[in-house]
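ok trying again, last paste got cut off:
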Amino acid sequence: MPGARHDAPPLTAERAADDALAAARAAEGDEDAFAGMVRRHAASLVEIATRLLGSRTEAEDVVRDAFLDAWRLLPELPEFQGYSSFGTWIRRIATDHCLNALRARRLAAPARIAEGPDAVRRLRGALDLLTAEQRVCWILRELDGHSVEFITEVVGMSREDVRAHVFRARRCLAQALGSRTSPSGLELGVTSAAAET
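nice, full thing came through this time. structure:
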């Protein structure tokens, strides 16, 4: 698949224990422990959010809001709502914020005309035609190369829903780009980095 993978860093027993200990301390109000968790997870979250939203500035805002939500929720949900790790839980919160931003954008403005190479401009315009869920699933699958299993965990959908959103996104993009088959970033000459604004 085109683009680099942006899964969470490998969850070693040591890393999971560090996150669990830091989360327990943060749930008790330890700001330094929470700051350490932010340092460990923020960069990968910003990368994912940038891919989903197409704007690093907007991605940084979304990630900041996700961490604020996590800080607020940790005292009430020290077990991360049943997620396997803090990293998975914070990715879910950030992805939810991205979905909300994409939905608001779709309601607020017509498709944007992006500057840049023709393939990138065409892809961005076509992506604006997708629902927020289709866009998130397609970008995570086609541009970032994530597995369906990873996407289901991050976006909180069933495997069938993720596959359906990717399928519909492929069909919509193929129609919008005048192709008989769904485009991939590679076919368009677009990498995940080039799709960012």
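cool. The two ends are 21 Å apart (CA to CA). Residues 1-9, 109-116, 185-197 have pLDDT under 50 and may be disordered.
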